[in-house]
Amino acid sequence: MGMEAPVAALHQEMVGGRPQRKKGGLKTIPCIIANEVLEKVASFGLLANMIIYLTATYHMKPAAAAAVLLLWGATSNFLPIFGAFLADSWLGKFRVIAAGSFFSLTGMVLLWLTAMIPGAQPPACSAGSHCLGATSSQLALLLGAFAFMAIGTGGVRPCSLAFGADQFDRRKSQPDADDVRVLQTFFNWYYVSVGVSLVLALTVIIYIQDHAGWRIGLGVPVTLMAVSTLFFLLGSDMYIKVKPNKSGLSGLAQVAVVAIKNRNIILPPNSSDSWYHKKKGSKLTVPSKSLRFLNKACVIRNPEKDLNPDGTAADPWRLCTVEQVEVLKAVVRVLPICSTGIMAAITISQSFPVLQASSMDRHLGPHFQIPAASVVVCSIVALSLWVAVYDRLLVAPLARLTGRPRGLGLKQRMGFGLVLSSIATVVMAITEHIRRRRAIDQGLMDKGIVHMSAMWLIPQYCLTGLAEAFNIIGQIEFYYSEFPRSMTSVGLSLLSLTFGTGSLVGAVIVAVVDRVTEANGGVSWLDRNLNKGRYDYYYWMLAAMSVANVFYFVLCSQIYGEEGKSKIWEEEEEEEKEEMEEDQQASKELSMMP
Asked: pLDDT tens-digit profile of 493-537?
């Protein structure tokens, strides 16, 4: 005794007579954080100002430009779901992030080429002439750039945070305080880096685009993305690369497929657990009575064919566990509440305020002018400040009043966020009405900068940021609380689906409003000339839809019932806790043996 452990440890550290470097840990984080920060600075720096590029350079109508950007946003939010599936089930996170980085870089290079290559964009409008639109080949290059960047987003964003967490060895049954502290440090730095990257994107990158032109303004993100990819690849030999395993999302798909295959079988009585396939060691032995159709996915029809000798399913696409069925039921159960976030996503993704800001006075002092798209940073500042104030100052007193550890209930926070989102759209409508009225009074119906400070837009951006802090963050915590720890990725998937659907619905709304209001020779509410259009009417329409969405949320909330009421996972989590305590005790006893 006494020498075996050191010898074994030394053997693991030596391969071919050479000491092997320990992989993972804090030394890998600079490469991962640099990749994340530079990728976000590059991509968000392009997105925030892109409506100016499309309307001024490609001569698109504001409605068409907004629809293109919303469709790009929808694609960028849907594809991370497939990226997460590929990473978990087939390729692993490292390969998916690397591939995503290359796709993003390729897309940014293509977008940069639209500004660099002569003839890659429509000719500039000559004085007094009609502006020519983009040709099919010019649009193909532009949309191809957006497509490559969306694919890249689908690879980088769903995996970056999880890959960073993989660099810390969490396989111990009972991590010590240092392990927990180091992992928490990584999470803190990760979220700080996201905030810093957004601020840099919405200020520095946009300022370069406005003052140095599009050739340099689009070239800087290309350089940043290239450096981002290089940083990530440089750390390849240091990373812990967790092998891909079965994805939780594929487990949900298996339940749906098997339930459809078994649609004609008769369900046994719920009290008879011998008919249902149970996860080894789980106390969840029979499915619940809700959504009973899905229970057919875990019925054992032929034990000899359906089960392996160790009790596992011979084919997971023919037989699922009771837990898989209950997880899918949990997803279905939260979908109505999830759908209420679509309207909030539409409000958050509005790009028309950037056009409004471009028509207003943005000077701070006699010599400095704020870029139109940089006003958006007020939303991020409001969100960050409120999260800090709420977490540090308000949670404790609210907890004493409500008896809830986090002060307000999750559904209360989501609902309040939807109310704030409705107020934000009302403020948008009022501000645009005042801006348009002043433009008319100043004789600027055709063109010109309205003598009205762009600071009038700050209240609506602050309200949008607060709405996001309440509703979006509340959604994340709500989804996480409704699923077992092994399925927390579903929460991020649902949020991504919400934003993707919101962008898609927003694009449809914009297209319908533009077509209907310009029918029969009328002037579109979303006309190229903001002063001739009626963007205030458009915002009032969104406000009415947002108010209706609040009532829809109240209905869904009442149908759902009390949050966390049916915790089917508590038994298993308690069992895991007991097993960890038993393992820890056994380790202590073994260490005391001679």
From this structure: 788 889 899 999 999 999 999 999 998 888 999 998 899 999 999
Contact 511, 525 (CB under 8 A): no
Give the span between the Cα atoms of 220 and 455, in whole angstroms.
28
Domain count across the chain: 3
**Whether 211 and 258 share a structural domain:** no
Q: Does an H or E element contain 355, and which?
A: helix 352-358
403 and 542 belong to one structural domain: yes
Q: Which of 320, 350, 369 is the last residue of a domain?
A: 320
Same domain, 214 and 236: yes
300 and 336 together in one domain: no
pTM score of the predicted model: 0.78
Write b or e for each residue in 40-65: b if 16 or more Cβ atoms lie within 10 A of its Cβ, otherwise e.
bbbbbbbbbbbbbbbbebbbbbbbbb
Angle at the Cα of 365 (from 361 to 368), degrees rounded to 5? 75
According to the model, what pLDDT value does residue 60 have? 93
311 conformational bin, left if phi > 0, alpha if psi -120 to 50, beta if neither: left
Domain that holds residue 284: 248-320
The conformational region for residue 92 under phi > 0 = left, psi -120 to 50 = alpha, else beta, is left
Burial of 591 (0-12, 13-18, 19+ CB in 10 A): exposed
My answer on whether 398 and 295 are in the same domain is: no
The reply to whether 271 and 345 lie within a common domain is no
| CA 430/CA 539 separation, integer angstroms | 9
Asked if residues 334 and 478 have their Cβ atoms less than 8 Å apart, the reply is yes
DSSP annotation of 275 reads G
Tokens representing 157 are: 């964003």
Closest-CA residue to 351 (of 167, 534, 535)? 535
Q: For residue range 396-452, list pLDDT tens digits in order.
A: 888 888 777 767 888 998 999 999 999 999 999 999 999 999 999 988 887 778 989
Rounded Cα distance, 271 and 509, in Å: 49
- Decide: 393 and 383 in contact? Cβ < 8 Å: no
Nearest residue to 151 via CA among 105, 196, 89, 189: 105
Which tokens belong to 402? 């409500």
Tell me, yes or no, whether 384 and 445 share the same domain: yes
Give CA–CA dist 355/351, Å, rounded.
8
